[in-house]
TrEMBL record:
Keyword RNA-binding annotated: no
Molecular function via GO: GTP binding; GTPase activity; identical protein binding; metal ion binding
Function: Exhibits a very high intrinsic GTPase hydrolysis rate. Involved in the addition of a carboxymethylaminomethyl (cmnm) group at the wobble position (U34) of certain tRNAs, forming tRNA-cmnm(5)s(2)U34.
Entry's EC annotation: 3.6.-.-
Cell compartment(s), UniProt: Cytoplasm
Database matches in PROSITE patterns: G_TRME (PS51709)
Entries under CDD domains matching the protein: trmE (cd04164), TrmE_N (cd14858)
Source species taxonomy: Bacteria, Thermotogati, Synergistota, Synergistia, Synergistales
Protein name: tRNA modification GTPase MnmE
């Protein structure tokens, strides 16, 4: 990408919101140091201070000194964004950081949009989209596995893997393209079966990378799992047992849970975002009906559904209806094993077409760890936590489209169709690498970043 000269200076707080030892305000754009100098008082102006050198001073306003600060400037292209930048390090109180930011905005900067610093870094060629996804993964990572996935993208490992795949595609399709473009030339004979094998090999590698990208997304964003079932089967008790905390109210009265109750737990490095839902049954209570509607919506939007069943009582019509209509992937939690599971349930769930089930007790915890294991294993049945990488959703989708084109190319009957599909595969791979990105795509990607990054 070519470097872009951003005339406007953007500013934002880069440190987390709240009290801390230090607060950092970041600025970027041509004239960043000049903006700081309008409100900075030190031994010498920041503009005349050598780059990458801290300068002690005070940030001031019309009312006097705002705070004792350290200021530093960075020259393009050796900065995070690839353009002239600056930072002001002040004390980490909520009010003082906000007052310092306001002073810089009044001096000529504007408040940055979410992800605008990283967006400028991409536009200026300081990093590619794969590295940018690693930045977001580092910020959102809640486990060692998530940070490892982010590091693979941030340090360029994922980008190099994509580049190697692209060069491999170019190498195996160079001869067939030449045969079509220059039929009069004396060129080596084409080994068609070898070409088909190469295309399928590339498709497999692309799908593997896409699956590892999905694994990285799950590590960063978590797996949303809805606990569903009829009233009083133990959904709220199971939620509390899963997170080892009393998050949901538990009573013997059916219909106690009226709204969604959400909680999270990290299991084997994967954040599980658990949603306790209202018991699903026929009801005329308008409040309960609203809760039931939200429960059904959670069933649709969640990535995994956990159907909680009372194994100590015979299956009801509501249980059977949910069991047959549940969208997969799904698991059944056969609860209340402490009271004994009825054989009727085991005969029903042992049928080949039924979803996997686990005998558990939300009361004493039996089988709960095994249920969490299976929740992770179900989601990662095609991908693996080992080798997970941070990617944006559009990158994963582009990799899958590229693999699909190659698979279609390998099965094509005519050489021109094979070459055309292989060319489309390269285009999709290029899109995953961030080539020819549109403003709309960049808007979609960087809106998910925090302000200040």
């Amino acid at each position: 990408m070519t470097s872009l000269a951003h005339e406007d200076v953007i500013a934002a707080v880069s440190t987390p919101w709240g009290e801390g030892g230090i607060g950092i305000i970041r600025l970027s754009g041509r004239g960043s140091a000049q903006v700081v100098d309008k409100v900075f008082r030190g031994r010498s102006p920041l503009c005349s201070t050598p780059p990458w050198t801290m300068r002690h001073g005070h940030l001031v306003s019309e009312d006097g000194i705002l705070d004792e600060v350290l200021a530093v400037r960075f020259e393009a292209p050796r900065s995070y964004t690839g353009e002239d930048s600056a930072e002001v390090h002040c004390h980490g109180g909520i009010l003082v950081v906000q007052r310092c930011l306001n002073a810089l905005i009044n001096a000529g900067a504007r408040l940055a949009e979410p992800g605008e610093f990283t967006r400028r870094a991409v536009q200026n060629g300081r990093m590619d989209l794969t590295s940018a996804s690693g930045v977001l993964g580092m910020i959102r990572g809640y486990s060692d596995e998530a940070l490892k996935a982010a590091s693979r993208s941030l340090t360029g490992t994922t980008r190099r893997e994509m580049e190697e795949l692209l060069q491999y595609l170019i190498s195996i399709t160079a001869l067939p393209e030449a045969l079509l473009d220059h039929p009069e030339e004396e060129l080596p004979d084409l080994e068609l079966e070898r070409l088909r094998t190469g295309l399928m090999d590339a498709a497999g590698r692309l799908r593997d990378l896409a699956y590892r990208g999905e694994a990285g997304m799950a590590l960063s964003c978590g797996i949303r799992a809805a606990l569903v079932g009829r009233p009083n089967v133990g959904k709220s008790s199971l939620l509390n047992r899963l997170v080892r905390e009393a998050k949901a109210i538990v009573t013997p009265i059916p219909g106690t849970t009226r709204d969604l109750v959400e909680a999270a737990v990290i299991h084997k490095g994967v954040p599980l975002k658990l949603v306790d839902t209202a018991g699903i049954r026929d009801s005329q209570d308008p409040v309960e009906m609203l809760g039931i509607q939200r429960a059904k919506e959670a069933m649709v939007t969640s990535q995994i559904r956990i159907l909680v069943l009372d194994g100590s009582t015979p299956p009801s019509q509501e249980d059977l209806k949910l069991l047959t209509s549940l969208e997969k992937p799904a698991l059944a939690a056969l609860n209340k094993s402490d009271k004994g599971i009825l054989q009727e349930w085991l005969d029903l769930l042992d049928r080949p077409q039924e979803i996997p089930y686990f005998e558990i007790s939300a009361l004493n915890g039996d089988g709960v760890e095994e249920l969490k294991d299976r929740m992770v294993e179900t989601f990662f049945s095609r991908g693996s936590l080992e080798g997970a990488v941070s990617l944006f959703r559009h990158q994963v989708d582009s990799l899958k489209r590229s693999a699909q084109c190659l698979e279609e190319a390998a099965g094509a009957s005519f050489l021109d169709a094979m070459v055309h599909l292989a060319s489309r595969a390269r285009q999709h791979l290029g899109a995953a690498m961030g080539r020819d990105t549109t403003e709309e795509l960049l808007d979609s990607i960087f809106s998910n970043f925090c302000i200040g990054k």
